[in-house]
Amino acid sequence: MYKYLVRPLLFLLDAETAHHFSFKSIKVLSKLGFGALFRSLYLVEDPKLEREVFGLKFKNPVGLAAGFDKDAVLYNELSNFGFGFVEIGTLTPKGQPGNPKKRLFRLLDDQAIINRMGFNNKGVFEAVEQLKKKHKVLIGGNIGKNKVTDNDKAIKDYMICFEALFEHVDYFVVNVSSPNTPGLRELQDKEPLTALLKKLKKQNGKLAKKLEASPKPILLKIAPDLTDDQLLDIVDIVKNTAIEGVIATNTTISRKGLKSHLIQTEEKGGLSGKPLTKRSTQVIRFLAEKSNNSFPIIGVGGIHTAEDALEKLDAGAALVQLYTGFVYEGPGLIKKINKALLERA
Question: CA 241 to CA 174: how far, in whole Å?
């Protein structure tokens, strides 16, 4: 139904307009009682799908990647489509409009999306208010820095978001790999990244002790454009900072091998979708092998079929996330992945 009726109608709209229309539609339909229908259509529940990762128990290993529910306004409704976890954000201390529109582009011939959104969000404190609702699903908090914040002051921005969200999310994701905030990827360099993660780990322990709670898992989201040497640095950084894991990967700045019209492919921003399938799996496999599977990896990038998800899990991922595949394939993809996992069990 989605691919033959809903998607053609949505794709008549500008990509960002379609995103907001979808959000409002899901919200309205859920209020009208359609949540139960969505669950009956898409939710797959079975103890064999459960995964324990980072000390958290996931109902199934298929999550929604950050960038879809930036302001934590739809996580419960989205859980009705069968996701085992939902990652909100990227959130920054202060709300910001992001980059000028037009900033979201579909590449239909490549089953891909280019975005240069630029961390548009209402700010972490507004998200906290949304997160005070009861959660039906595990929530990840993806955090970043404001565009106007210089890199030498970036740690403060990450700390503000971390402290604000600590009591409201189940795990954290440190986003230093988006290509759409000027200079952000420089924070992936070994020295600044190590300093940032050590600071967050220290604060994690302090907050946990103060609130008599368990520390929250901290994950690092990395770019697919890193070299092998840079990926080896990531392995060292995870070990030296004792963070809990890695999300591989964010969007790519590469435009290699695209079929779409040159005018589209030359748009600036991060590319996601099918063209990223192979590279993200390569990064997962490299990290898993070079680290001797010493930390969990969430695999994301170009998952459009159940086979794509299984490949990432086989390469060493403990969990997977969808974004562009969810846009192109619809919620039926979540069900297909979970059904394929059950067939294997």
Answer: 13
Contact 126, 168 (CB under 8 A): no
The burial of 237, by beta-carbon neighbours within 10 Å (0-12 exposed, 13-18 middle, 19 or more buried), is given as buried
Is 70 annotated as belonging to a binding site?
A: yes
Q: Is there a domain that residue 2 lies in?
A: no
Answer yes or no: is 171 a known binding residue.
Answer: no
pLDDT in tens, 271-328: 999 999 999 999 999 999 999 999 999 999 999 999 999 999 999 999 999 999 999 9
- Expressed as residue numbers, the domain containing 107 is 56-344
Residue 82 domain flag: yes
The verdict on residue 119 lying in a domain is yes
Tokens representing residue 216 in the block: 């929250």
85 DSSP β-pair partners: 63, 138
Q: How many domains does the chain have?
A: 1
Neighbours of 228 (CB within 10 A): 11
| pLDDT tens-digit series, residues 96-117 | 999 999 999 999 999 999 999 9
Is 117 annotated in a binding site? The answer is yes
CA 238 to CA 5: how far, in whole Å? 45
Output the domain CATH number for residue 138: 3.20.20.70
- Is 29 inside any structural domain? no
Omega of the bond leading into 90 within 30 degrees of 0 (cis) = yes
Catalytic residues: 178
Does the annotation list 67 as a binding residue? yes
